[in-house]
Amino acid sequence: MTRLFLASDSTCQSYSEENAPQAGWGQFIQDYLANCTVFNHAIGGRSSKSFIEEGRLGEIEESLQEGDYLLVQMGHNDSTKEKPERYTEPYKEYKQYLKQYIIIARKRRAIPILITPVARLHYVSGEFLADFGDYCNAMKEVGEEEQCSLIDLMNLSINHLTEIGIKEATTYYMVEVNGKDHTHFTEKGANQIAKLLAEPLRALINN
């Protein structure tokens, strides 16, 4: 049985029924991966920095075993300059923190996989826009520098939203429910993102 550990934020977090219909892709990903067990450590409001400083990566490290996978999707909260406890400069601190996840995984003989931030519902003049550009680019640099596998979820999710169109895409996000939240997913959206992510993830795990 392959074991996957998820280090991420609210877009990946598992939510209780009382939070429904808000959901994160981490609570659905196991449905699309045969012979896998998922341990979802994602929690809202965390950046690559605060996740580590709160000891959450340390908790994962204690459980990691040889052959496990550590999936790291960070970036949404790293960009919040008004919250210094979260913020990281993309090409300096952010890269340094991401490398700590890779170091910890490899120290435990686990396999790290970087995942770029997932798209927000940012639609202007008939086009879905990709946010967090510097963070996506910086993560790709880390992937190359550390020879670490990477899934470009920003690109995958933007392409998917473009295919389905704005009317359907809106049902993926909590703005459909509360009229203001363009970041967090409904159960429908989280499930679709998990499905989208599972295909490239299966290829990496099977290799």
Automatic annotation (TrEMBL):
Keyword match Hydrolase: yes
InterPro entries: GDSL, RhgT-like, SGNH_hydro_sf
Stored CDD domains: Rhamnogalacturan_acetylesterase_like (cd01821)
Keyword Lipid biosynthesis tagged: no
SUPFAM superfamilies: SGNH hydrolase
A Pfam family of this chain: Lipase_GDSL
Keyword field: Hydrolase
Family: Belongs to the 'GDSL' lipolytic enzyme family.
Protein name: Rhamnogalacturonan acetylesterase
Lineage: Bacteria, Bacillati, Bacillota, Bacilli, Bacillales
